[in-house]
Amino acid sequence: MVRYPQLTLKSNRERSYVVHVGIGLFKRIPAMILRDWKGRGVFIITDANVRRLYGTQLQHGLTSSGMSPLMLDVPAGENAKSLKIVTALYTQLLQHGLRRDSLIVALGGGVIGDLAGFVAATALRGITFVQVPTSLVAQVDSSVGGKVGINHALGKNLIGAFHPPAAVFIDPALLQSLTQREFRNGLAEVVKIAFALAPDFFTWLERHGSDLRKPSGSVLRALVSRSVWLKASIVARDEFDRGIRRVLNFGHTIGHALEASTRYQLSHGEAVSIGMAAEAKIAAEIGLLKRADYQRLVHLLKALRLPSRIPADVSKARFLAAIGLDKKSDITGTKFVLPRRIGEMLIGIDVPTPFVRSLWGQ
Ligand SMILES: NC(=O)c1ccc[n+]([C@@H]2O[C@H](COP(=O)([O-])OP(=O)(O)OC[C@H]3O[C@@H](n4cnc5c(N)ncnc54)[C@H](O)[C@@H]3O)[C@@H](O)[C@H]2O)c1
Ligand SMILES: [Zn+2]
């Protein structure tokens, strides 16, 4: 019999939730939902791709268990994280009888988790929701931690809430249908988690190296479960992102500026990968990190076919503006999270601008 390890996360809102991880878990989700939410209205929110791949199967499973789920889908992609889509979802949910005791099932990647979670946080002042993450980014990162939200014209994730899910169901087998590029995006977050928090996991990643580009079976399961456990352990210590949770922003200061300055031509994972290499380089140059540790990071990123250099065609002026650096300032407007060694990060570091400027032509 396959055993599904359980991880219980205590939320400060006097609720705790279980993160279930197991290959083959997907087909057991209807029974698990029925056990805890029998008799409630169930609404699945997904995107058009995931609806086709897994949505119909989940809907049938729930129907066979005696529930009457309604499935709503939105177009795939980041643009769905908008107030317009949120409003359309509110309308459909309310027209179909959403109640305070209904259950929302977020089935999809990080976009769906953030969007459906935001709808759940706000409709009728808060509906219970569960996460069924289907992308690697969502399985190792976004489905755990309770941060939900949408984008605003002035920036990503600017409108949101903390609304922890009531449960998270992670089946790594669902990742087999992801494209290589989407899988690599998730690998960037896995490397971030390992480099920021766990030297032994980082060494494990190095040992498996290029095998991780398309893992299956026990390697895939270990990759996902170790990452999500590490993420959960940090969230448990700092649910509202006021301290230690910020170590997970490693690579994201430069990463976000690269995403913005390339108008999202680089995917988030690619931008974070370059961001980690650049921030580790800065840390090595200011004498915080051993050069050998910086080189280990770059070596692993290369083995995973993740980028580690700022592409030559990224506009330096646009990048510096995005990072809050104009010609006159000698310190960036943004605080960095920089590594002191693998597994130890420093939060809130000011970086003198020459170190940021020197990233060009690295
Ligand atoms: N809340 C958080 O803590 C947190 C953390 C990290 C990222 N995020 C957010 O997550 C989002 C990125 O998530 P993402 O990379 O999963 O993007 P995504 O949800 O857009 O999914 C990427 C693509 O993969 C497809 N897809 C998903 N699962 C699939 C599967 N199993 N097989 C085939 N295709 C599949 C989707 O349809 C989509 O086209 C961003 O909006 C980011 O801000 C949130
Ligand atoms: Zn990220």
Notes on the protein architecture:
By secondary structure, the chain is of the alpha/beta class. The chain is 44% helix and 18% strand. The protein is built from 13 helices and eleven strands. The strands form three sheets. Strands 1-2-9-6-5-3-4 form a seven-stranded mixed beta sheet, sandwiched between helices. A hairpin with a 3-residue loop joins β1 and β2 (15-21). The termini are far apart. The model has no long low-confidence stretch (mean pLDDT 92). The structure holds nicotinamide-adenine-dinucleotide and zinc ion.
Show unreliable segments: none
Bound molecules: nicotinamide-adenine-dinucleotide, zinc ion
Give the percentage of residues in beta strands.
15-25%
Rg over C-alpha atoms, rounded to the nearest angstrom: 20 Å
Write the layout of secondary structure elements.
Elements: E1 6-11, E2 15-21, H1 29-37, E3 42-47, H2 48-64, E4 70-74, H3 83-95, E5 103-108, H4 110-122, E6 128-133, H5 136-142, E7 147-152, E8 155-162, E9 167-170, H6 180-197, H7 199-208, H8 217-237, H9 252-261, H10 268-285, H11 291-303, H12 316-322, E10 336-341, E11 344-349, H13 353-357
Parallel strand pairs: 2-9, 3-4, 3-5, 5-6, 6-9
Antiparallel strand pairs: 1-2, 7-8, 10-11
The chain binds nicotinamide-adenine-dinucleotide and zinc ion.
The site of zinc ion has 4 residues, from helix 10.
Index terms:
single chain, alpha/beta, two-stranded antiparallel ribbon, binds zinc ion, 362 residues, 44% helix
Task: Provide a quick synopsis of the model.
The protein has 362 residues and is an alpha/beta fold.
